[in-house]
Amino acid sequence: MKFALLTTVFTALCAPSILAVPLEARNTTSIAPNTNRSTTRVTDVDVLQFALTGLSRFTRADFIRAGFPASFFNQLQFVARDEASHVVFLQRALTGLGVRPVSACRYNFPFTDVRSFVGLASVLEGIGVSAYLGGAPLISNKGFLGAAGAILAAEGVHQSLFRNSLNLIASANIAGTAINPNAIFSLASAFIVSCPRGNPALPFTAFPSLSPRGGSLFGVNTLSRFVIGRGIVIPPVFFITFVSGFDIISIPGVFSGGFYSGRIPRQISGQSFVFLTRTAARGTLVESTILAGPAIIEVNPTIPNLNLLI
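The chain above was modelled as a monomer; its predicted structure follows.
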């Protein structure tokens, strides 16, 4: 049962995300009274509904007017098909394990036009990749792990499609970025309105919120600034820890003018996660050191210098 519950979490939490604009701080008091952090999650059904909502709200002509080619709208039909197939597969797999699939939560994904829809979709897919990678160590069933890996490959293709459409570097990092289920759970709570009482409780806890200020698109070695949620106390000495691909890098943080600031290390590239931590990470992010996060930022990479002699 523990295996089934963890795989439910790992697959069900692949959708939560922030926009490609600064994420507003989470406010737990805004969650509906019948909702608590132990039952708050975004399911694969929700991300399918998100995709279908965008496709039903915007026409091919809307995408063309927003500057996207007609072929991109055609690609979205296949993305929606993939997500629908993932939902069916996951529901059948969980049912086969004797687990009742969770019911969809009510959520609020704040997109207002075609471009913000595509921006949110891009980050959703990136979060999906990170959730699958972070959840993989929790899976003991090799058959299910292989199937999840196959879905992960599709999520990566989707992410590249959206990133390319937004003129972002599709392969901005040499590897996907794994984050743990508690971090995914923390991101999910920013968008949840309520969840059915009948959903099983998850054994995860949301971290205090962390949000970028001044936009979420950065260059390497630029100053990044963040704010935390209300009621959070950060000690005078803290670190800003960046998680990007294989790299987990901490730098001493500075608190000034109400912002927690630090320069982005040169190794950080593409869609990346940021935490405030008590101590510097040394190759591994230890959960007990996390003070707040994750925030999501996009770091525009520099053109690589290729060594053709390898």
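The two ends are 47 Å apart (CA to CA).
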